[in-house]
Structure formats: C-alpha cells, structure tokens
Amino acid sequence: MQTVFVQGVAIGASLIMAVGAQNAFVLKQGIKKAYPLPIALLCSMIDALMIIAGVAGLGRLIIAFPLLTHMASLGGAAFLIWYGANALRASFVVKGLDTGAGGEAGSLRGAILTTLGISLLNPHLYLDTLVLLGSISTGFDAPERPWFAAGAVLASFIWFFSLSFGARLLGPLFSKPVAWRYLDRFIWLTMWSIAGAILWPYMPDSVDMG
What residues in the chain have per-residue pLDDT under 70? Predict the structure, then answer.
C-alpha cells in the first residue's frame, strides 16, 4: 500500500506541477498576497474531487460522450483567451507590489469565481485527473486504488499551498513595475498557448491532416 501511495504522490505531482493556466493564476495571486488560503484550498479541493471521481471511473463515462469534451474544450479556450487578453492589457499598466488588503487584491468573491473559472473551464483538468489518473489507477487492484488516489490528492494539496504561500517570497522582486510586466506577459503567453493547443484540433487544416 505504501508503494502505491508513493506512486500516487509522484504521478500526481508530475501532472500538477506542469506550467499551466491554474498555476500561473495561483502564482500571481500568491505574489500579491491576495487570498492565498481560499485559493489554495479551493484549487486543492477541486483537484481532490476530480482525482477521486477519476479513480472511481467517471473518466470512462466522459470518454463515452465526446460532446462533453468538445463543449468543455471550446468553453475553456474562450475563457483562457479572455483571461490572457486581460493579462496582456495589464502588462502595459505601470504598477508595483500592493500588499494591502484592498487595491489590486480585488474581492474574495471575485478571486473565488476566477479560481473556479480557471480550474473548471480548463479541459486539461479533466484530462489529467478524470481520464489520465483514472486510467492509471486501473492498473492497481481495487483495494489499492484509494491509496493511489490519496497520494495524488496529497500531492495536489502540497503543491497548491506551497505555490500560493511560497510565492510571497518573490515580493521584493515584484516591488519593481518591470517584474509585473514580465509576469503578466508570461501569463498572457501561457493562457493563449494553452488555448491555441485546445483549439488546434478544430482548425480546418488540422482536421484535413487528421
């Protein structure tokens, strides 16, 4: 059981730690010290629910209904394009680090809604947790699968809390406006790159080549 648990931690971490829309958002909010606890907790809980559902077999149901995948992909791409455009526009605004309770931190409600959007509208969340981790878990015996899921869930909690609270160590760097400019443009490139990868299979040339 311990070996299966460790495998769950390792595989879960390898998927979660990849540069992506969710991690970029958590990083920026952590640097701003804007609601790091609720954001880290919400991201971790969403991942945990998806991992458990994937190990329970929900991923196979999604594969059986490709229309759901297409709807999630197109909606997620639209959201990422919108969020990336906002980041690009923000990169042209001169600003430093605001550590106060107000200012650029925004409202808790806004932070939660954006966290939900950046998480649930990203099709990679479903592919990584429901489909991929769910498929890997089928290689274990039934009594071992909960341990595999527990390991992946632990990796998610450790990662998001470390990223959300550890990002504040970059505060001195982001007291300089140029650092925010580069971060916003990095987020813009990340969001639009992911959106492009999602939309590529729907492009006419891609369909013809397939």
Answer: 18-19, 59, 62-63, 68-69, 72, 94-105, 205-210
How far from the centroid of its chain's Cα atoms is residue 182's Cα? 20
State the pLDDT at residue 100: 42
Q: Contact 199/190 with Cβ under 8 angstroms? A: no
pLDDT recorded at residue 103:
41
Q: What length is written for the chain?
A: 210
Complete DSSP assignment for 107-176: -HHHHHHHHHHHHHT-HHHIIIIIIIIHHHHTTS-GGGHHHHHHHHHHHHHHHHHHHHHHGGGGTTGGGS
- Euclidean distance between CA atoms 147 and 7, whole angstroms: 9
Burial of 98 (0-12, 13-18, 19+ CB in 10 A): middle
